[in-house]
Recover the amino acids of this structure.
C-alpha cells in the first residue's frame, strides 16, 4: 500500500495495518513452537483459524476504508496475549482455547483458556487493554463486575467444567489501585510470569537464532479462588492403606538388592512418606505436592526394558524373541530401541522429583496381578520396592471426572484412576494418552505427566 500520497492520519493507519499483518504472520510461525513446547497441539487449529481470520480482514481493507475509520479495532493484540499466556510454564493440560463454556441452556461464558494450574482446573481470561483504561468500578466495563460475573459463572457451572481458580492475565499490566483492589476484595494471588514469547533454534557453527514473537515487560497474572475444597495431608494419611509400609531411601540401602542404578536414582527423587512431618512448612502440610501413579507408570518403572534389559533384548536373535513374545515382539523391540535413545527413568525422575507418590486401590490391585502373572524375579523385586514408597489411597474419583460420560474411550476404570488423582489435585503419571485426549476433547482439563510405554518382559 503506497502511503506517499495519503494524508498523515491515513498513512499512520495504513502503517498500523501493515504492522498488524506482520504480527499475524509472526504469530502463526510461533504456533508450532508453542505446540512443541507444551506437548499439546489441540489449541493450534483454533488459534490458527482466528489469526487467519484477522489476516483476511486486514488484507480486505482498502485505502478508502482505512481513511474513513477514525480508529481501527484489531484482535491481533488479544491473540498475542493468549499465546503469551499459553507460553507460561504453569499453564498445563490445555483443553480449550477462545471458546465459550455453556453454563445453562440459555447462558454461556467466554473463556480464553481452559487448562490446569498445579493440578487444579483453571479458567483463564486475558486482557490486552492499556492499563489506563482498566477501571475498577465502571458500570459497563469495570474489572470488578467482570470478575464477579466470571466467578459466579464458575460457581454455577457443572461439576465437569467447574474450575478451582479463575486466572486473570493482563499483557500490559494494571495500575497500582487496581492491583490493590484485586488483592483486598478477591484475595487474588499474583503469579510470576515470563515476559518473553520466544524459542531458540540452533543454526550450527555455534550460532543461535532467537525467534521472538513479542515481549511483555509489564505483564502480570493473578489467580482468584473459586472452590475452597482441597484435601490436606492429614486426610490422606487417614484414608490410606497402611498394610504396605511407606518408606524412604534408607530402607532401600539396607535391602542389599541389586535393583539397578536408574531405579534407585528414581526412588531417591521421590519424597518419602515415612519420615516425620515435623519441620516442614505449613504451606506444604496444607497443600502437599503429590503425583498419582497409574498402572502404565508403575509397569514402566519396574520393567526390565527400563532397567538395562533393553540391550540384552536387542542382542537376542529374533527367532528367540518371537518364540518368547509372540505377536508382541515388534512392540517390545520398538520399546527397547526407544529406551536406547532416551532412558525413561531419567526422563520421568525430573517430573516426580520432590513429590510424594500416591496410588489408588484399583491400580494397586491391578498392578500386583500383572506383576504376579507377567513379571520376572527382578521386576517383582522392583515392584515390591516401589510400592513401599507410594501411599495407597482409597478409590475417590472427583465429581467432575465422574460426571464425564462413560464411553469406550472414557471407561469407568480409568475415570476412577485419573479421577482419584484429580481429587487429590495430583497430576497422574501415565502412558494412557488415549484416555487423556478423549477427556480433553470434552473441554475438561486433566493434569497429567505423560511418558512412553514400557512392557514387562519377565526379567
Amino acid at each position: 500500500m503506497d502511503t506517499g500520497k495519503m494524508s498523515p492520519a491515513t498513512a499512520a493507519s495504513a502503517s498500523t495495518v501493515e504492522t498488524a499483518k506482520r504480527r499475524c504472520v509472526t504469530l502463526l510461525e510461533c504456533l508450532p513452537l508453542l505446540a512443541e513446547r507444551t506437548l499439546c497441539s489441540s489449541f493450534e487449529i483454533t488459534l490458527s483459524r482466528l489469526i487467519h481470520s484477522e489476516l483476511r480482514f486486514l488484507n480486505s481493507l482498502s485505502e478508502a476504508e482505512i481513511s474513513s475509520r477514525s480508529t481501527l479495532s484489531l484482535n491481533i493484540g488479544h491473540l498475542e496475549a493468549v499465546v503469551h499466556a499459553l507460553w507460561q510454564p504453569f499453564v498445563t493440560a490445555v483443553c480449550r482455547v477462545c471458546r465459550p463454556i455453556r453454563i445453562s441452556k440459555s447462558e454461556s461464558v467466554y473463556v480464553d483458556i481452559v487448562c490446569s494450574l498445579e493440578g487444579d482446573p483453571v479458567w483463564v481470561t486475558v486482557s490486552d487493554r492499556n492499563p489506563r483504561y482498566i477501571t475498577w468500578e465502571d458500570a459497563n466495563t469495570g474489572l470488578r463486575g467482570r470478575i464477579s460475573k466470571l466467578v459466579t459463572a464458575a460457581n454455577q457451572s457443572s461439576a465437569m467444567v467447574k474450575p478451582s481458580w479463575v486466572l486473570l492475565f493482563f499483557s500490559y499490566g494494571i495500575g497500582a489501585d487496581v492491583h490493590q483492589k484485586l488483592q483486598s476484595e478477591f484475595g487474588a494471588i499474583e503469579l510470576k510470569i515470563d515476559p518473553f514469547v520466544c524459542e531458540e533454534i540452533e543454526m550450527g557453527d555455534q550460532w543461535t537464532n532467537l525467534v521472538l514473537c513479542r515481549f511483555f515487560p509489564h505483564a502480570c497474572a493473578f489467580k482468584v479462588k473459586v472452590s475452597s475444597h482441597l484435601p490436606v495431608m492429614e486426610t490422606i494419611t487417614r484414608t490410606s492403606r497402611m498394610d504396605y509400609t511407606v518408606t524412604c531411601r534408607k530402607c532401600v540401602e539396607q535391602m542389599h538388592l541389586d535393583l539397578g542404578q536408574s531405579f534407585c536414582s528414581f526412588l531417591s527423587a521421590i519424597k518419602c512418606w515415612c519420615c516425620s512431618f515435623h519441620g516442614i512448612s505449613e504451606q506444604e502440610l496444607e497443600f502437599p505436592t503429590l503425583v498419582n501413579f497409574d498402572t502404565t507408570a508403575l509397569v514402566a518403572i519396574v520393567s526390565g526394558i527400563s532397567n538395562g534389559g533393553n540391550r540384552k533384548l536387542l542382542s537376542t536373535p529374533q527367532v528367540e524373541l518371537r518364540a518368547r513374545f509372540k505377536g508382541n515382539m515388534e512392540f517390545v523391540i520398538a520399546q527397547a530401541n526407544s529406551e536406547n535413545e532416551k532412558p525413561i527413568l531419567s526422563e520421568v525422575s525430573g517430573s516426580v522429583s520432590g513429590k510424594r507418590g500416591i496410588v489408588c486401590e484399583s491400580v494397586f490391585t491391578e498392578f500386583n496381578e500383572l506383576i504376579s502373572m507377567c513379571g520376572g524375579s527382578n521386576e517383582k523385586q522392583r515392584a515390591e520396592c516401589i510400592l513401599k514408597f507410594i501411599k495407597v489411597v482409597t478409590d475417590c474419583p472427583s465429581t467432575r471426572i465422574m460426571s464425564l460420560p462413560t464411553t469406550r474411550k472414557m471407561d469407568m476404570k480409568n475415570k476412577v484412576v485419573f479421577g482419584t488423582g484429580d481429587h487429590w489435585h495430583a497430576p497422574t503419571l501415565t502412558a494412557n494418552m488415549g484416555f487423556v485426549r478423549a477427556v480433553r476433547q470434552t473441554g475438561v482439563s486433566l493434569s497429567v505427566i505423560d511418558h512412553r510405554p514400557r512392557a514387562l518382559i519377565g526379567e
In short: DSSP finds 20 helices and 14 strands in the chain.
